[in-house]
Amino acid sequence: MTEQKIVCFTLDVEDGVSIAMRDIFGKNTEQTDRVVTYTKQIIELLGKHGVTGTFFVLGEVAKKFPDLLKAIAKADHEIGVHGYHHLQFFRMTPDEAFQELTSAKKLIEDLTGSEVAGHRAPAFSITPETEWGLDVIAKAGFIYDSSIMPVRGRRYGWPGFSKDITTIPTGYGNLIEVPMSVGSVFGKEMPVCGGGYLRLFPYRFTRRMIEQILQKRPAVVYMHPYELDTEPYPDYYFEELRKTDLLTQLRMRSMWINRKTIFSKLDDLLTQSNFVPMIHLVNEYIAGVETEGSTV
Ligand SMILES: [Zn+2]
Predict the structure, then answer these.
(1) Measured in angstroms, how far is the CA atom of residue 12 from the centroid of ligand 1?
(2) What is the distance in A from the centroid of ligand 1 to the CA of 53?
(3) Average pLDDT in the 191-205 region?
(4) How much distance in Å is there from the Cα of 88 to the middle of ligand 1?
(5) Is 91 exposed, middle or buried (0-12, 13-18, 19+ CB in 10 A)?
(6) Which of 4, 132, 229, 260 is the most buried (most CB within 10 A)?
(7) Where is the NodB homology domain (predicted)?
């Protein structure tokens, strides 16, 4: 297998209701079983296409829904960690982040009986301001991280960071970073391979962007289970939403635009590329670096 024309499908396994409740409204609520429903739909769709991907699972999800974790493992997907409580790195001290990562890693490893190699930070929150997080991720025992969006974003991003897989020396040994894919739209770099971009734009736009990225390197696609969720959220969510300002209400409601289109876009995407779990890219990268005579 060469690295050309390869796509990694990645899923951040978290519940949209409880994360919105905490991050937008400041209320702690439990993960709802919607995360199970929609993650299972994605497992089924990937299975239909014979695709294996990488599922970055939140500790809170693994704790409440251990059977879901087992279903992901049973379908041969790679399992990584997406934090325990979905705390962005800028909301934690290094000690808190270490605790967050090691507790989620241990829980997931105990439940699956397999070692976890990869980590993705909530909301791509490894940025120049939270560079210390890379040390924490290496210290927690991860081989690789996939949290850096090499663009200047409103809430995240590390402008100028490499777009290729990179070795990062840390105080706890080397960490391999698999940066998120960015595409060039009218000369501006954007995180075109997932989330709102996949939802809002026609599939042919996403396809064109992926082909553009594949000219140079493998592409990393990312999604969340809640992007398939078209059922109304629970009443307690709307009670909180009504208390917010109009701009927040509009922003939250905009997250429903085109959700109904995601499933068929994903179906098309899975038909048209060669997919591997992220650990395969990392292993190939390590083998390549070793061949060149350096050490990883
Ligand atoms: Zn997340």
Answers:
(1) 6
(2) 16
(3) 86
(4) 9
(5) middle
(6) 229
(7) 23-296
